[in-house]
Design a protein that fits this description.
Structural class: alpha/beta
Number of helices: 13
Shape: globular
Mean pLDDT: 97
Helix content: 25-40%
Strand content: 15-25%
Radius of gyration: 21 Å
Number of domains: 2
Length: 348
């Protein structure tokens, strides 16, 4: 069948926050080309908290914590539906099993180089191979198969007036520049040192910035925020655990600049057009860095890969990770220099 004439589309991308932010850009590019197509998105429970209410998209929540029951629930929710095309945007084996619960004439997946965890068994058509693609660019290749030719990412997230109002209440609206530090990644090994975050915060405050720390309600995030605050010479706002994902997105939208490691809020900030200074040691920033602001990444990844593999990343399988305790290699001076560069280039 011709994919540029589809009427019903199923998106399969369960996680994670950063990846679904990338996927939104592709989905909304598809909507511009196929405004009348019915779009259903099978998505994770947490990720749906951010994207719920996205215009023109019906969400089916897949709660992985339910184990085998999650697949039975998914099959029941989609009973009687058959899509023109399934865009299987996730290579994880769990997503592959989920795809078996979805009836579609075409099941489009990744090329062989990007396939793993038996992904190839669950698809019948592939996107084209691409040299060193960013995750967002990979998702746009799915959109390309459906006739999309403009791959410039645009985001319209479902953020309400109350979400915006809560953000303003939390950070104020006095007009001074705002640095948001979103310090916690999903794995502690990818977190930068709290005393170094504090040194950057103090530098920003001396430049006239207000500084706020954001994050979720986990004990790790709360502890990290407290450690940063204790090391700061000046007062900073601690907003950890005080926002929903949508409210956090609005806070990030109010920021002048965001400082974060490889974590979801970095990509949430990109959707709001806020410059992001990304701190990268374990994953390739060319693949997973803040898409519009990759020039602002401070990274030690490439050197770590050479040390661990004896070759540069360009000569290794795309997406190879560096291992170990690496974040302490990112110096405070390098991050402050990048902060000053962002301030200078954006005339903040």
């Amino acid at each position: 069948m011709q994919l540029n004439s589809v009427q019903s589309i199923c998106i399969l991308r369960l996680s994670a926050i950063g990846d679904v932010c990338h996927a939104v850009a592709a989905v909304q590019a598809i909507q511009r080309v196929h405004p009348n197509a019915k779009i259903t998105w099978v998505i994770g429970k947490v990720e749906a908290m951010l994207l719920g209410g996205l215009p023109g998209v019906d969400f089916v929540i897949f709660d992985k914590k339910q184990g085998k029951q999650a697949f039975k629930t998914l099959r029941a929710q989609l009973k009687g539906q058959k899509f023109d095309v399934l865009l299987n945007m996730q290579v994880a084996f769990r997503a592959g099993l989920a795809s078996r619960c979805i009836k579609a004439k075409v099941k489009l997946g990744f090329d062989k180089a990007r396939s793993k965890e038996l992904h190839s068994l669950f698809i019948n058509k592939r996107i084209e191979p691409k040299s060193e693609p960013h995750v967002l660019e990979g998702f746009m290749q799915f959109a390309q198969q459906l006739g999309v030719t403009d791959f410039t990412p645009h985001w319209q997230l479902p953020l309400s007036d109350s979400d915006h109002q809560k953000a303003v209440e939390l950070v104020g609206d006095e007009g001074e520049p705002l640095l948001i530090i979103s310090p916690a990644a999903s794995k502690a090994v990818r977190n930068w040192l709290p005393e170094r975050y504090a040194q950057v915060a103090d530098h920003a405050i001396k430049q006239g910035f207000k500084v706020a720390i954001t994050g979720g309600p986990t004990e790790m995030e709360k502890a990290l925020a407290e450690q940063i605050s204790e090391h700061c010479q000046a007062e900073v706002l601690n907003l950890v655990g005080k926002t929903s994902l949508k409210e956090l997105t609005c806070v990030l939208g109010l920021a002048t600049v965001v400082l974060a490691p490889d974590t979801g809020p970095a990509h949430m900030a990109v959707t709001q057009g806020t410059p992001v200074i990304g701190l990268y040691a374990h994953s390739n920033p060319k693949r997973t860095g803040p898409y519009l602001y990759q020039d602002y990444v401070v990274e030690v990844y490439n050197q770590a890969v050479i040390e661990q593999h004896g070759k540069p990343a360009t000569q290794l399988p795309w997406g190879v990770r560096a291992k170990g305790e690496l974040m302490d290699r990112i110096s405070t001076d390098a991050v402050i220099a990048m902060f000053d560069k962002v301030v200078r280039e954006h005339r903040l």
